[in-house]
Every structure is written in structure tokens, then in C-alpha cells.
Amino acid sequence: MKKRLFILLLVVLLTTGTVSAGFAYFGFVSQTIYEESTAHLSEIFHQANQTLYNLVSVNWSRMRMWVPYLEKTESETDIIAYVNQAREEINFTDFYFISRNGDYITLEGKRGYLDLRTQLSLLILEQQPVVVNSVVPDKPEIMVFAVPTRQGTYRDFDYEAIAITYNNSDLVEALKISTFDGDASTFAVLPDGRVVVDNGSEDMQDIYNFLAMLKDSGSLTDRDLEDLRHAFLSGGSGDMVFELNDRDYYLVYESANFQDWTVLGVVPAAVVNASMNKMQTITVFVVSGIVIALAVMLLLMVIQQNRQKLKRKDYELLARDELFSKISTNVDDVFLMMDARNLHVEYVSPNIEKLVGLSEQQVLGNIYEIENLVRQDESIHILDQLSEIKPGEQCEWNREYIHQKTGKVLWFRVVVFCTDIQGAKKYILDLSDRTKEKKINQTLEDAVRNAENASRAKTIFLNNMSHDIRTPMNAIIGFTNIARKYDPKPEVMACLEKIGESSEHLLTLINDVLDISRIESGKIKFAPVPADITEVVNTVLSIMYGFLSNRSLSFFTNIEEPEATCVLADTVRIREVLVNILGNAVKFTEDGGSIHFETSYHPGADARQIMVRYRVSDTGIGMTEEFIEHIFDEFSQEENNARTHYKGTGLGMAITKRYVDLMGGTISVKSRKGEGSTFTVELPLELTDESNVQKQGYSNTNVDLTGVKILLAEDNDLNAEIAMVQLEELGIRVTRAADGKEAVKTFAENPPGTFDLIFMDIMMPEMNGYEATETIRSMNNRQDCLSIPIIAMTANAFAEDVQASLDAGMNGHIAKPIVIDEVIKAIAQNVNR
Fold first, then answer.
1. Class for domain 709-830, per CATH?
2. Which of 298, 315, 560, 610 is the most buried (most CB within 10 A)?
3. Using the 8-state DSSP alphabet, how is residue 622 labeled?
4. CATH number 3.30.565.10 is the correct assignment for the domain at 525-692
5. pLDDT per residue over 441-465, tens digit each?
6. Considering the domain 171-276 in this protein, what is its CATH number?
7. CATH of span 2-168
8. What does the DSSP assignment read for 149-204?
9. How far apart are CA 697 and CA 212, in angstroms?
């Protein structure tokens, strides 16, 4: 049925296409015939027009040649003889001397009036030659050719022009067309359509106004007639078709090129197109026959191709069935197709027995055999929900089945598709065995859980190690700084300085190891805040000048000022990146070398973003091309003795690269061994309003803290002693509490105003610093419980430790080993000094 409909549709389309093509071809041929015919007619009638023009021009030229003779000759006899000789040469009928008012006198002295109509003024006043229809008594209608002369006298008659006449039939001969067997008509008309020269055929005689004739025929619209009248008036040319007496005519027209005459050519269309119409008819029959033959051939080819396609399709279906059967036998998916009306199984893949232990016959007989394999704790039955699935939709479930023969628990992913096959609703089930994946996922989940436990253990270890190392480091650095203030002997001072340098170096190594571990564990996050980007450079430069204090290095800067300075940036990370790079430049450049630091700003991805570029160049030891590929690897140093000679863990550049990546930027390096290195860092920064940038607070640590009263909660005696010594040297009165519980008691037992600030250690026995702070903040019976500044002074130095301190109600955080300038700054900011 479908095949027949297809063939019928194809025949209809071919027939419609053939008919449409025939009409299109017929229209094209008709238009071509019209264009060729009018072009041919225009050429023929142009020749007639040229003949008329030549006749008029020759007569005017000859008459102008007569004028000088007539003006200088006084003898009437000579004038008569001269004119008669000219008459014999060009065969005109009469000769006239014409006055200003149109009166005339002949050579014989006969007088009268020659009606030149509107052309008289053109002849006399504008001194232009004219040709015009006119009449004289007792003679047929004549055509008058006149040219102006100087004022003269002939037989006492004053004249200003001379004229000769022809019978109209003489000019008609000039327009006569020998082609078309007398069926062609030629006219000369005025702009208003009046015919001045009539060479009409039998069916075009006695036409006095051509435009009036066209209007009476009714074949042209008023708009067409107006356009034609305008063409006559403007001296235009063209062609058209009009109908007269149920007959079509071609009309071609063009200006006569003298006065305002237009020459028309009119020929019946059937006469012009006789041979071409015959050719068109023959062509149409031939082309139609060819098209029909091609259509029949095409139809036969389509039918043959359809037969071949059907054969191929049958073969493909058989091959596909065989392929599907082989595949379904060897995959871990069971495929079923059921009728939606009665859930009758129409197909089941042969591998069902291997996967669930049921035979094909069991499932073909009853689909519920599969549902009986579901574990008893499954409350939802798939078969009960199939009716809710619409054609084109699908639903999925996870199911645990019990293998019918082995009793093993199997995990299946069940997907049901609803489809429409020739109007019949069908369900297609795919039972995919995911038991292996389930076991693999379970193994992976266990591995992830173990990894998370290991990561938590690592984090706890790092926190504890950081605290346990920083606590004695605080004592070493603190006592070293205290000892320097007692003016020891030079030998002792040298030892103290070396101890201080080694302590600072050890602390840097510890920080690097802890930072890289925390970066890898994802503990360090990118935290952009509104900031002035130029302040970062100023801070870095002040640190850099400290690096150069005991070195003989030339340091050059080229710092560009950005148009907008307020951005969202993690200034701490940017500063660490630049300090690391500049510190390496100082470390690996020998005295006498130079370092260049450049900062520039460039347009970002859009108007709200800028790209800041930092470039550090040095003339140091440089690197080989092989080592450049590993410069950002952990613990990488090019030379075996570099660790001893230059000191460091080889983690600085690895940390720098992680920070740059964290901020979405890029870092690159160019270097040659023995010639120096150039590091380039590019960071995208988002612009922000200046009002969002918090101005720097207290910056001057040179402040008088005499009389400030501080409660120090510190369980480590050495750390407590160091802090008390350094604070008391500043005139601060310090009260120590040995743990958090004692700190709370001391604060509670003293009246408000006893202490200006509390320094709180975190890891203390009895009660830690967080608990002690929360307890103090909750003392509702004291008016200063919320206003007393509490600053964490702890070896817990990570970012989350800072946040934990703030969350517990503290006002700030100072990491151990303590830097006395930071301590002074914190005190001054919180006690208004």
C-alpha cells in the first residue's frame, strides 16, 4: 500500500513538474519572441524614419543654399529661372515667398494665405526651419518645407521666409515599408497623437489621431496612454502590444529627430510571429515529448531503485537480526519486547538464562517470572508502573535480583522504553547487569573513605606538628632576641645572630613544607577582597629593600601606574608570589649583578577586568633548558650542592606556581645558564569601586604602650616568660594565667577596667582558648564581657585557625613565633594607642 502511494505521489509530482516546466518554457519563449520581434521591427522602422529625416534635412539644406542667391538677385526673371531649375531637380510642387503674418506670393505673383499653424512663430520669430501640413485653395493637402530669410521684397511683397511644397503622397512614399506584404503601417504623429503623415495599411486607414484610436480600442489603460503621450512629447522610443478589432498589433515608435514628430510602426503580431509561432509550436511539442520520455525513464529508474533498496533492506534486516542475536547472547544485558495491552512477551534475548537463571520459554509464557526474582524488600513492582509511560518516554530503576539457579544477589539497571510500532504500543525492557560495577564502586567508595580518613589524619598531624614545632621555635627566637638586647660580647653576639638566622631559616622551611601539604590537600583557598593593587607593590618593594641591605646588587624598577587601582585580589598570595621570585633573584645573583622589577597593566577579558603583569629579571646563575621544565616541581634544585650552598627546600617555586594557578593566572620563565633568568607572572583581576577598599589601619608601631594592662593566658612557661619580658620592656603590665580556666577565673575576679586586653593561647589544659573566650563573652553579669579585646597568640597558624579564633569571639590572631612589631600593632589597634 505504501509503495503504491509512493509511486502515485511520484507520478503526480512528475506531472505537476512537467506541466509547470511547460508553462514556464512557453512563457519564456513568448517573451523571447516578443523581444526579438520588437527589436526587428524597431530596426525596420528606424530605416523608414531615417529616410524621412534625410528627405526633410536635404530639402532644408537646399533651401538654405537658395537664400543668399534670392537675397542678392533683383531680377524677377532670374529668380523665376533659378527656382524653376531647382523645381526640376527635386520635384517640389510650388514655391512661395512668405510674410511675417503667413501671407504668401508665388513666382507668378499670385497671392494668398498659407496656414502654418503654430509653426509660423517658430519660423519667423525663432528663425528655425519648419515642416508642416497645410492647404491652399483648389489643391490637395500639401506638406510645406520653409526656412527663414532676411527681410526681402518680391514684386512689392515683403517676405521673411521661403517655402516649397510637396503633395502628402510624396512623403508617404518615404515612410513606405516593403516588408510584411503591405500589412505594415507607418505614421508620423505630433505629441497630441495627430497624424501628420499617414502610410496606413488597409486595416489602419483614415486615422486622424493615433492616441484617440488607441483609447477607443480599449486595449490600453489610461496609465498606458498617458505614458505613451509623455513618450511622444519627450521624444522617447519604445514598443508595446495593443489590440484592435480582436487582433493584436506590435507598436514601435521613435522620435523623428526634427521638430516634435514621432514616427510610428504598426504591424499585426500574427504577421510578425508567423514563422516564430510555428517554430514555437514545434519546439513545445518536441520538448514536451522529451520531458515526458525523461519522466517515464526517471519513474522506471525510481521503481527499479526502490526494488533494489527493498532487497538491500531485507538483507540488512536479516543481518541486523543475526548481529543482534549474537551480541545479545554475549553481553550482560537482557532485552525484552512486550505488547502494552496484555504484557505479552513477544521477544526475549537468549542470554536471559545465563544472567538470571530463567529460560526463554518461562519468560515468553509469563513476564511475572522475572518479577518473582526481585528481593522481597523491594516494595515497588516495575510491571505495575508501565501503564504510566507514554510513547517516546522511558523510565529507569535499580533492582536487586536473586539468580534462579545460583541464589546469588545481582544488581540490575532496568530501563523501559515505550514506543509505537505501526500504531501498536510496545514496551522494550533492557535489564543491564551492573553487579561488577556495583562491586567496583563499592571498592572505590571504601578507598575514598580510607583516603578521606588518611587526609583527616594528615591534617591533624600537620596541625599538631605545626603547633609542636612553633612552640619551641618561639622560645628559641624569643630568647635569642632577648639575649641580643643585653649587649653581649662580640663573640656571643655573632653566635646569637647565627642562631637567629638559623631559626628564621628553619621556620621558613617548616612553613614551606606545611604550605605545600595544605595546597595539595585543598586547604588553601583563593580569597579575593577589595584592595588597592599598588599597595601590594609598595609592600613588596619595602621587603625587597630589606633583602638588599647587606648585598652589593643593583636594583632597578619600572612601576606603571594603572588607571584604576581598586581590584578584587588576594593580596597576601600576590605578595608571597612576588617575594618568592624576588627572594630567589637575590639569592641566586652574585654581588655586582643586577635585578629588574617591572609592573604593567593591560586590558582584561572585558571592561570590568584588567590583566596585571609582573616581570623579574636578574643576571644570576640562570638555569639549563632541561631544568626549566622542572622548575615548578617540588623539591627541585638543579645542582646537587645547591641545597647546601643556597639553602632552601626547593619548594618556593612549587608554592608560587600553585598560588598563581589558584588565582587563575600564568607564570613563565626564560633563562640561560650563567646569564640570568626572567620570570613573568600575569594575573587577571576584577575591578571594583574605590568605596569597597578598606583603608590601611594602624601602621606605625612606634607608640607608647606604658601602663597598658594585659592578661596573658599561656600554659608554656618558656613562651610565657618570653612574652612577659618583651611586653614589660614596653612598659606593659602583664598578668599571667597558666591555662584557660585560670584565665576565666582571673578575669571574673577582677573588676571591669582591670585589663585592657587578653592574649589567649589556644591549646591549653583544663580549658582551651576557644572555650575560655566563649565563657568570657557569655558573662552577662559583666559589662565589659563583650568589649574586652581578646587576641589569639598561638602556634596554630593556619588560615582555618585564624577563622576559628574569630568564630570563637576573638578580635584577632598572632602566630607563634611572635614578632614583637605585630604584637605592638595588635595592642595599639585594640586599645586605641
1. alpha beta
2. 610
3. -
4. yes
5. 878 877 777 766 665 665 556 555 6
6. 3.30.450.20
7. 3.30.450.20
8. EEEEEETTEEEEEEEEEEEHHHHHHHT---GGGG--EEEEE-TTSBEEEEE--GGG
9. 104
